[in-house]
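In line with agreed milestones, the collection of sequences with tokenised folds has grown. One record among many is set out beneath this paragraph:
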Amino acid sequence: MTKKTKKLFWTIFIVLLLGAAGTYGYFTWFAPAADTAAAAAETVQTARVRQGDLILYATGTGTLVPAAEATFGFQVSGQVAEILVGVGDKVEAGQVLAKLDDTDALSSLASAQRDLLELTSPVAVATARQGIVQAEDALDSARDTLAWQISPSVLTWEERVAEAESALQKAKDENTSSDTIAAAEQTLKQAQASLAYARNSYQAYLEENFVETETIMTRSGPQTVKVRDENGNLVINAPTELQIASARADYDLARASLQEARWYLSALLGEEIPEDATGTSLAKLENAQTAYDKALENLEAMQLTAPISGTVMSLDASVGDQVGSGSIVTLADLGTPYLEIYLDSTDWANIAVDYPVEVIFDALPDKVYTGKVTQVDPGLVSQGGTYLVRGLVQLESNQPGLNLPTGMSAAVDVIGGRAEGVLLVPVEALREISPGEYAVFVMENGEPVMRMVEIGIKDLFYAEVLSGLQVGEVVTTGIVETSE
């Protein structure tokens, strides 16, 4: 080995020796000291799984209100003749509470009743039947006159066309099947064709029935012959357009009169008639019926009746008072106690129909009453510049000492959830893996191990554990940083 080689060897040896010494010193003195410092700087905080109760509350205030309330008065003006109830009395729906002087109303009703009976008497019914017979005779006469002027065939087919048009329109209005509408259209076309043929034959009808005749003397005696003009044409005394128009008008009037006579008799007999039914006699009958109904309504308005069952809360009238249509009575249904409650808007998600409620009235601070939510307004309401959740609570009516006056104030706890005798962990121990899925770190052999858990209800501090943990297990709730 040369001198130069020996020098290099010892240099490498010394470097390796120093490196080994440094490594030994690091793991012997420095590394433990660093671990100790890190341990001192970070401490795992833990909590034990315990068994207990968890109740979710939404706290607010409430006021005792009746289940139903009605404030009302007479429908007409008058002088009070009778007061039949007093404040505090319990009444039933429909019960008469007070009466006005009904002398004039009774007189008006008797007069209206006489007028109606006169129009609906047996004589009136018999007269109406006679009117129908007379209207039928008038219609037959008017039809015969028109048929003579335009020919029976033309009139018959005019009527058939009108009937077919009406049937077709009815089928369309009632949205019947296409086959029914097609059949109605075919019937109309056939009637129209027959009408056209009848009109084409009208001249022959005139020559047969309206030609001018004269009587001449022949060897065999008098003989009737048709008159001809200087050109040899028959002289026909045909109906004028004015005569035909007048005959049509008479026919239409006779048909309308018969229809009105039939409607009137149906009304007298209490049968159903169309809403658009007309007629002078019918209008007179309807006016008499309306007058009678109005008189009866006015008489009934002389009595003040209860719209609901309940307790008389106030009565602002006395016998002899002159009253109008303003409210004088207030009724309240006190059978089922209700609370009108208000909660902070942040409790919107903590109240719903059928949620149980605990109530403490200001007048009974040592008594807790129970009930349930029956209504939650769909929107927030403004009270004193603050937006609140408004709801109604029905209290259990069989609870002793609940005969409190309306308007009584109370503190209200709406129970949004209740879990009794369940496993509980601090909410700080939960790690949300995904929406609705949670995990915790459980200490096993001094090391935190992640475990999935199923969570029920929770408040700001504790959560209900449905599965995944056992009583007494230790879970981490976070790391507390400390300083030396």
About this structure: The longest helix spans residues 3-41.
